[in-house]
Amino acid sequence: MKWTELKITTASEAVEAISALMVEMGASGVAIEDALDVQNYVEDAYGELLDKENLNHVKEGAIVKAYFPETIFLPEILPAIKERIAKLPEYGLAIGENKIEMSEVAESDWATAWKKYYHPVNISRYLTIVPNWEEYEAKSADEKIIKLDPGMAFGTGTHPTTMVSLHALEIVLRGGETVLDVGTGSGVLSIASKHFGAKEVHAYDLDEVAVAAAQENMDMNPVAADVKVSANDLLKGIDIQADVIVANILADIILRLIPDAWNLVKPGGKFIVSGIIEDKKAEVLAALTAIGFEVTEVLQQADWFGIILTKPLEGE
C-alpha cells in the first residue's frame, strides 16, 4: 500500500475539527503536532527538564498530517477539503495560516500506482476524456477526445465541478469565441473550449506547476496547440475582452474574481463559474447579480453547483 500525505498548518483550536474532517474524507490515519503540547508540558512541575528552544517540534499553531491510501485520488477531493476548512471560522474556530501541502510518501513507484483507477470517461454525447496512457478510438465522427495526463497534482476531469464546467461550455460555445480559462489546472476546460469551436483561448493559473502541467496537456491535444497558457493571479492585469470567461475555482475566490470578470466580458458574453457548494450559492449569486450579471442557468452535479451568467447588452 502506498500513501499520500496531506499536511495542514493551522491553529491549535482547529485540530480536532480538521482531524475529524480528514477521517471523514477517507484518511486512514492522522498525526498531530501541536505547539500547545509543549507549552502545557513546560508549565508543569517537570517543565525545567524539557529543552523547549532546541526541541524539534512545531513552535506555533499546529500541524495536522493525514494519510490517504492510493485508492483515494486526493486532488479530486482537495477542493472540498479546502472549502470545509475555510468554513471553520464561521463556527468560531481560528484556522491560523491554513497552509495545505500534499506530498507522496514512501515507495518510488507511487507516481504511477494510481493510473489503474483512471479510464476513458464519456462526459457527454460529444466529449470523452481519455488518460494519455489508455488506448481509445472514437465511437462516432462527432465524438471529441481530450487526452489528459493528470500527473500528481490534478484530476482527470471527472470531479463534479469540472463536469459542470464542461457541460456549461458545451451549452454556450457556438464557434469563434475568445475564452479566458481562470484557474486552468490540468487545462481540460481550455482543450474542451477549442473542441467546441472557440477561436482563441487564454489559460491562467497562479501555480507554476499547474501552468507546466496544462501546457503538457495542450501539447498532447493538437486542437489546443494555440492555447496560450501563462501564470497569473486570476485576471489581474489582463485586458483581453472575452466572449466567455470560465472559472472552476472555490466560491471565495470567485467572489474576488467578479469585478475583473465583469470588466472583461463583452456585452452579451457569458461568465461560467463552478466549484460552489450549497452554503455559498446564495452569497455568490448575490454578488454576481449585484454587479449586473443575469443568471442564465444553474447546473448541479452531486453537491456542487455551476452557474452560467450573461452580461446584458448595452442599453438593456
Question: How would you characterize the overall build of this protein?
Answer:
This protein has two domains: 3-113, Alpha-Beta Plaits, CATH 3.30.70; 119-310, Vaccinia Virus protein VP39 (Rossmann fold, 3-Layer(aba) Sandwich). It starts with a strand and ends in a 6-residue tail after the last strand. The chain is α/β, with parallel strands linked by helices and 316 residues long. The chain is built from nine helices and 14 strands. It has helices spanning 15-24, 35-42, 74-86, 110-113, 160-172, 188-195, 208-220, 251-264, 278-291; strands at 3-10, 29-34, 62-69, 99-105, 121-122, 127-131, 144-148, 178-182, 200-205, 228-231, 242-248, 265-277, 294-301, 304-310.
Write a brief structural summary.
GO terms for molecular function: protein methyltransferase activity. By secondary structure, this protein is of the alpha/beta class.
How are the SSEs ordered, and which strands pair?
Layout: E1 3-10, H1 15-24, E2 29-34, H2 35-42, E3 62-69, H3 74-86, E4 99-105, H4 110-113, E5 121-122, E6 127-131, E7 144-148, H5 160-172, E8 178-182, H6 188-195, E9 200-205, H7 208-220, E10 228-231, E11 242-248, H8 251-264, E12 265-277, H9 278-291, E13 294-301, E14 304-310
Parallel strand pairs: 6-7, 8-9, 8-11, 9-10, 11-12
Antiparallel strand pairs: 1-3, 1-4, 2-3, 5-6, 12-14, 13-14
Helix pairs in contact: 5-6, 8-9
Keywords: Cytoplasm, Methyltransferase, Ribonucleoprotein, Ribosomal protein, S-adenosyl-L-methionine, Transferase
GO cellular component, one term: ribosome
Family: Belongs to the methyltransferase superfamily. PrmA family.
